[in-house]
Amino acid sequence: MNEEQIKARLMAAGIENARFEAHQLLEALSGDALSAAVEKRCGGYPLQYILGEWDFYRETYEVSEDCLIPRADTELLVEKAIAMLPSGARLIDLCTGSGCVAISTLCARPDVSAVGADLFEKTLALANRNAERNGVAERFTPMRADVLQEPPTELMRGSFQAIVSNPPYIRADVIPTLQKEVQYEPKAALNGGEDGLDFYRSILDKWMCLLAKNGFVLFEIGYDQGQALIELGEKKGMTVRVFADLGGNDRVVLMQK
Q1: Residues contacting 31, CB < 8 A, separation 6+
Q2: Which residues contact 68 (CB under 8 A, 6 or more apart)?
Q3: Contact 166, 97 (CB under 8 A)
Q4: Of 46, 18, 51, 17, nearest to 34 (Cα)?
Q5: Which of 11, 20, 50, 231 is most buried by a 10 A CB count?
Q6: Integer CA distances (angstroms), 147 to 37, 75, 192, in order
């Protein structure tokens, strides 16, 4: 198959960026593997998982069904962390997934170190490979932890200048209505509970003890969750600011004591 034939197949399947995706598939694959990949993509399987890697911020990440696909919207979270972290800071990235938030921050800030916490061993192994791939493994510590529970005892109180997180924040009832590509992503990385706020509440209730005196929290949020996060943060005595993404949607929340 040539690029025009692949594009035509993808367009017929309703793929929006058919020309771009056809080029990506043709660059990465050939022969039977290419034909199989086009078939999978036409069925809604994500391009990123087919390719096995994806660019995010200034880095390239291994991706698989063990992690959420890194998205451009999340780069705002990274930009804020890079700009705000004090010299020599430690950060903890909760629900780290592919590790892209912590790792891209470390790549831009060689003075900073990070812990990446996630519930799933396969996901943590993936994040660790991404840290190695991008040259920051010595400053990235993967740690198994359930963000809906208390922090592991080995994490010292007050030892992090920042808590950053792109947690699951989609309402449980909305998940079945999402586009077919998203249905292949891990549900545990999407499901924020009945109102989409379970992980934010847990972090604010259980994990704030890890934050240093002048530390801050950065969350990615859903486009319609800004007001809810303001209320949650203010109840905890935090000052709260909401930042919009390039599309004008609320996307990142900053909380400070």
Answers
A1: none
A2: 97, 98, 166, 185, 186, 189, 190
A3: yes
A4: 51
A5: 50
A6: 35, 22, 12
pTM of the model: 0.95
Distances (CA, A) of 131 to 28, 90, 257: 23, 16, 30
Contacts of 177 (CB under 8 A, 6+ apart): none
Q: Count the neighbouring beta carbons within 10 Å of the beta carbon of residue 43.
A: 10
Domains and CATH numbers, the chain: 3-62 (no CATH), 72-256 (3.40.50.150)
Question: DSSP states of 173-222 as a string?
Answer: TTGGGS-TTGGGS-GGGTB--SSS-HHHHHIIIIIGGGEEEEEEEEEE--
**DSSP 8-state assignment for residue 65:** T
| Torsion angle of the four alpha carbons 183, 184, 186, 192, in this order, in degrees rounded to the nearest 10 | -10
The distance between the two most distant Cα atoms of the chain, rounded to a whole number of Å, is 60
User: Per-residue pLDDT for the chain (257 aa), expressed as one digit of tens each?
Assistant: 899 999 999 999 999 999 999 999 999 999 999 999 999 999 999 999 999 999 999 999 999 999 999 999 999 999 999 999 999 999 999 999 999 999 999 999 999 999 999 999 999 999 999 999 999 999 999 999 999 999 999 998 879 999 999 999 999 999 999 999 999 999 999 999 999 999 999 999 999 999 999 999 999 999 999 999 999 999 999 999 999 998 999 999 999 98
* Angle CA 78–83–89, to nearest 5: 90
